[in-house]
Design goal:
8 helices, single chain, mainly alpha, 173 residues, Arc Repressor Mutant, subunit A
C-alpha cells in the first residue's frame, strides 16, 4: 500500500474521528486549531490528501451535502482498512529525533483526541532514544572538531526529547 505523508495521516485521523467534508478538515488543520498548531495544512493540500486517501482505498465518500455559499460538499469517512492503518500508525514510535516535533507530536495529539493513553507510546519512544543516546555517547569520546560539536548538539537534543517523554509519562501516572 502507498506511503502516507503526515498530512495524509492527519486527514485520515480527522475522518476517523467523524465523517467530514474537506473544508471541515482544513479548518481543523488551520494554525489556530489544535492539530494545526502541530502541522498546518493549506486547504488545497487537504483536498490533494483526500484524493490520495481515496485512491488508496483508505477513505470513501459517505454523502453529499449542499454547500452554504458554494458547491456541494462530499462527506468522507474512513474504510475499515483506513481505520486499521491509522491504528497501527499511532502505535509506532518514530525512528529519528528530527521527526519528534512533527510526527511524534501529531501521533500523541491524535491519541489524546481519541482518548487513548499517551504513556505507552512515550515509553516505546523513550526506548528508541535510549539507543540513540548510547550511539551518540559511543561516538562522542572519539570525536573532535566540528564532528564533536555536532554530536554534542545531538546529545543535548536527545536529552531534551527523553525529558519530554518522561514528562508525558509522569503526567499520566
Amino acid at each position: 500500500m502507498g506511503a502516507l505523508s503526515l498530512t495524509d495521516w492527519l486527514v485520515l485521523a480527522l475522518l476517523c474521528e467523524q465523517p467530514r467534508h474537506g473544508f471541515a478538515v482544513a479548518r481543523e488543520l488551520a494554525p489556530d486549531n489544535e492539530l494545526g498548531s502541530i502541522w498546518t495544512v493549506r486547504r488545497s493540500l487537504v483536498y490533494r490528501s483526500i484524493d490520495h486517501l481515496l485512491d488508496l482505498g483508505l477513505i470513501e465518500a459517505r454523502a453529499v451535502e449542499p454547500g452554504i455559499k458554494g458547491p456541494h460538499r462530499t462527506v468522507m469517512e474512513p474504510t475499515r482498512a483506513g481505520r486499521a492503518r491509522l491504528h497501527r500508525w499511532i502505535e509506532q514510535p518514530v525512528e529519528h529525533p528530527r521527526d519528534v516535533r512533527s510526527v511524534l507530536l501529531a501521533k500523541l495529539a491524535v491519541r489524546s483526541r481519541r482518548g487513548l493513553p499517551l504513556a505507552p507510546l512515550a515509553q516505546q519512544q523513550r526506548a528508541v532514544f535510549e539507543r540513540v543516546r548510547e550511539g551518540i555517547q559511543a561516538k562522542l569520546s572519539h570525536s573532535e572538531g566540528i564532528a564533536r560539536l555536532t554530536l554534542q548538539w545531538r546529545a543535548a537534543a536527545n536529552e531534551a526529547i527523553v525529558s519530554f517523554l518522561d514528562d508525558v509519562v509522569a503526567d499520566e501516572a
